[in-house]
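Lecture 7 notes: from sequence to structure.
We start with the chain below.
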Amino acid sequence: IFIDKVPDLESQPPKFYSLDELKTIYDADKECSHWWKLLVNTGMRLSEAYHLKTADIRQDGIYIVSTSRQRTKSRKWRKLPLSKGVNLALQGFDLKDEYLFPRYRKEAIKRRFSRVCERAGLPKGKRGVHCLRHTFASQLVMSGESLRTVQMLLGHASIKTTEQYAHLSPDYISDSVSQVDF
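Predicted structure tokens for the same chain:
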């Protein structure tokens, strides 16, 4: 018998930020902390934020559109609500430009975030921009939001995909059973 691919049997703790870690990230990058605040408060993928046009930011929400020129991963549009955190983050952007994010290469934005996380003292495994998306999903689930709502906000076609993002912190799990006395 020939095994084509060995299944991945590794299991590691989820990669998302605590609120204290987010604060250290913001403090480590005062100039562009609004970038990171927007990503963590919307759950947008970096590519979605990078291609977001300011015209798609409206009074009733942020419209993530999928066009023939620039497709979203799901190939479907969605609307993200304007929360307090999103509105605060948007104040740091120049909303007069065509695109919300400066036209740097996406790799440059990723490198900047990695350096910011390094300055903030975060371990190597938690220096990716995508951890902000994980954080968005995890914090929503830990605050009691339904997986279906998180699925819609993240733009996932399948709830199975959302379940992978909906990590619960070890402290949250401990706190949830701390009062159990059968």
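Points to note: The longest helix spans residues 106-119. The mean pLDDT is 87.
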